[in-house]
Model the fold of this input.
Amino acid sequence: MFTAEQYRSKALEYEVLIKTARSPVELAEYRDLQQSYIAFADNLDWLAANAGKTVTGGANGGPAAERRKRQAEHVDEEKILRSLGAAVILHWNTIPTQLQRALFEAASSIQGARTPPLKDALAQFLHDHKDDAQRERQHESRA
Done:
Protein backbone atom coordinates (compact mmCIF):
# COMPACT_ATOMS: atom_id res chain seq x y z
CA MET A 1 0.00 0.00 0.00
CA PHE A 2 1.21 3.49 -0.80
CA THR A 3 1.74 6.29 1.66
CA ALA A 4 0.47 9.84 1.23
CA GLU A 5 4.04 10.96 0.56
CA GLN A 6 4.42 8.42 -2.24
CA TYR A 7 1.19 9.63 -3.84
CA ARG A 8 2.39 13.24 -3.60
CA SER A 9 5.71 12.23 -5.16
CA LYS A 10 3.86 10.62 -8.06
CA ALA A 11 1.75 13.77 -8.45
CA LEU A 12 4.96 15.80 -8.73
CA GLU A 13 6.15 13.48 -11.53
CA TYR A 14 2.98 14.27 -13.45
CA GLU A 15 3.49 17.99 -12.80
CA VAL A 16 6.78 17.69 -14.72
CA LEU A 17 5.07 15.70 -17.47
CA ILE A 18 2.36 18.36 -17.78
CA LYS A 19 5.06 20.86 -18.76
CA THR A 20 6.29 18.54 -21.53
CA ALA A 21 2.93 17.39 -22.88
CA ARG A 22 2.82 17.26 -26.69
CA SER A 23 -0.91 17.50 -27.19
CA PRO A 24 -4.04 18.74 -25.42
CA VAL A 25 -5.14 15.14 -24.88
CA GLU A 26 -1.84 14.23 -23.26
CA LEU A 27 -2.00 17.39 -21.14
CA ALA A 28 -5.50 16.53 -19.93
CA GLU A 29 -4.48 12.95 -19.14
CA TYR A 30 -1.45 14.06 -17.12
CA ARG A 31 -3.48 16.68 -15.28
CA ASP A 32 -6.19 14.10 -14.42
CA LEU A 33 -3.59 11.65 -13.14
CA GLN A 34 -1.87 14.35 -11.10
CA GLN A 35 -5.19 15.34 -9.51
CA SER A 36 -5.99 11.69 -8.78
CA TYR A 37 -2.70 11.17 -6.95
CA ILE A 38 -3.23 14.38 -4.98
CA ALA A 39 -6.73 13.19 -4.03
CA PHE A 40 -5.33 9.81 -2.94
CA ALA A 41 -2.77 11.55 -0.72
CA ASP A 42 -5.42 13.85 0.74
CA ASN A 43 -7.70 10.88 1.44
CA LEU A 44 -4.93 9.01 3.25
CA ASP A 45 -4.16 12.11 5.31
CA TRP A 46 -7.84 12.44 6.22
CA LEU A 47 -8.07 8.76 7.18
CA ALA A 48 -4.99 9.08 9.38
CA ALA A 49 -6.34 12.22 11.06
CA ASN A 50 -9.78 10.67 11.62
CA ALA A 51 -8.81 7.06 12.36
CA GLY A 52 -10.71 6.96 15.65
CA LYS A 53 -13.84 8.47 14.13
CA THR A 54 -14.45 6.08 11.24
CA VAL A 55 -16.90 3.20 11.25
CA THR A 56 -15.63 -0.26 10.37
CA GLY A 57 -17.43 -3.56 9.79
CA GLY A 58 -18.77 -4.73 13.12
CA ALA A 59 -21.21 -7.37 14.26
CA ASN A 60 -23.23 -7.13 11.06
CA GLY A 61 -20.22 -7.95 8.93
CA GLY A 62 -20.07 -4.62 7.14
CA PRO A 63 -19.67 -4.18 3.39
CA ALA A 64 -18.05 -7.58 2.82
CA ALA A 65 -21.09 -9.40 4.21
CA GLU A 66 -23.41 -7.33 2.04
CA ARG A 67 -21.28 -8.10 -1.02
CA ARG A 68 -21.39 -11.84 -0.27
CA LYS A 69 -25.17 -11.65 0.14
CA ARG A 70 -25.55 -9.89 -3.24
CA GLN A 71 -23.29 -12.50 -4.88
CA ALA A 72 -25.41 -15.32 -3.43
CA GLU A 73 -28.58 -13.63 -4.70
CA HIS A 74 -26.95 -13.29 -8.13
CA VAL A 75 -26.13 -17.01 -8.18
CA ASP A 76 -29.71 -17.86 -7.24
CA GLU A 77 -31.01 -15.52 -9.92
CA GLU A 78 -28.71 -17.09 -12.51
CA LYS A 79 -29.97 -20.58 -11.59
CA ILE A 80 -33.56 -19.39 -11.96
CA LEU A 81 -32.88 -17.85 -15.35
CA ARG A 82 -31.11 -20.99 -16.57
CA SER A 83 -33.97 -23.19 -15.40
CA LEU A 84 -36.58 -21.00 -17.06
CA GLY A 85 -34.55 -20.88 -20.26
CA ALA A 86 -34.17 -24.66 -20.31
CA ALA A 87 -37.91 -25.09 -19.75
CA VAL A 88 -38.69 -22.77 -22.65
CA ILE A 89 -36.31 -24.70 -24.94
CA LEU A 90 -37.81 -28.05 -23.91
CA HIS A 91 -41.28 -26.84 -24.84
CA TRP A 92 -40.33 -24.55 -27.73
CA ASN A 93 -42.28 -26.48 -30.37
CA THR A 94 -45.46 -26.36 -28.28
CA ILE A 95 -45.31 -22.58 -27.89
CA PRO A 96 -47.51 -20.63 -30.36
CA THR A 97 -45.52 -19.09 -33.22
CA GLN A 98 -46.39 -15.52 -32.28
CA LEU A 99 -45.09 -16.09 -28.75
CA GLN A 100 -41.98 -17.86 -30.14
CA ARG A 101 -41.22 -14.77 -32.23
CA ALA A 102 -41.74 -12.44 -29.27
CA LEU A 103 -39.50 -14.57 -27.04
CA PHE A 104 -36.86 -14.80 -29.77
CA GLU A 105 -36.83 -11.02 -30.32
CA ALA A 106 -36.66 -10.34 -26.58
CA ALA A 107 -33.85 -12.85 -26.04
CA SER A 108 -31.85 -11.68 -29.03
CA SER A 109 -31.96 -8.07 -27.88
CA ILE A 110 -30.53 -8.93 -24.44
CA GLN A 111 -26.79 -8.52 -24.36
CA GLY A 112 -24.06 -7.73 -21.91
CA ALA A 113 -21.74 -4.77 -22.17
CA ARG A 114 -18.99 -6.92 -23.70
CA THR A 115 -20.99 -9.43 -25.75
CA PRO A 116 -22.25 -9.12 -29.31
CA PRO A 117 -25.95 -9.48 -30.10
CA LEU A 118 -27.15 -13.08 -29.85
CA LYS A 119 -29.68 -13.13 -32.70
CA ASP A 120 -27.69 -15.37 -35.06
CA ALA A 121 -26.50 -17.70 -32.30
CA LEU A 122 -30.04 -18.03 -30.92
CA ALA A 123 -31.46 -18.77 -34.35
CA GLN A 124 -28.84 -21.46 -34.95
CA PHE A 125 -29.37 -23.00 -31.51
CA LEU A 126 -33.14 -23.15 -31.93
CA HIS A 127 -32.74 -24.66 -35.39
CA ASP A 128 -30.28 -27.28 -34.15
CA HIS A 129 -32.50 -28.27 -31.22
CA LYS A 130 -35.97 -27.89 -32.72
CA ASP A 131 -36.69 -31.62 -32.59
CA ASP A 132 -35.04 -32.42 -29.24
CA ALA A 133 -38.33 -32.62 -27.32
CA GLN A 134 -39.82 -35.01 -29.90
CA ARG A 135 -36.73 -37.20 -29.81
CA GLU A 136 -36.82 -37.25 -26.01
CA ARG A 137 -40.50 -38.29 -25.99
CA GLN A 138 -39.83 -41.02 -28.56
CA HIS A 139 -36.88 -42.28 -26.54
CA GLU A 140 -39.03 -42.36 -23.37
CA SER A 141 -41.85 -44.24 -25.11
CA ARG A 142 -39.42 -46.93 -26.31
CA ALA A 143 -38.03 -47.47 -22.84
Q: What stands out?
A: The chain is about 75% helix and 0% strand. The chain has a mean pLDDT of 80. Helices lie at 4-19, 24-49, 62-90, 97-109, 119-128, 132-142. Residues 91-142 form one domain.
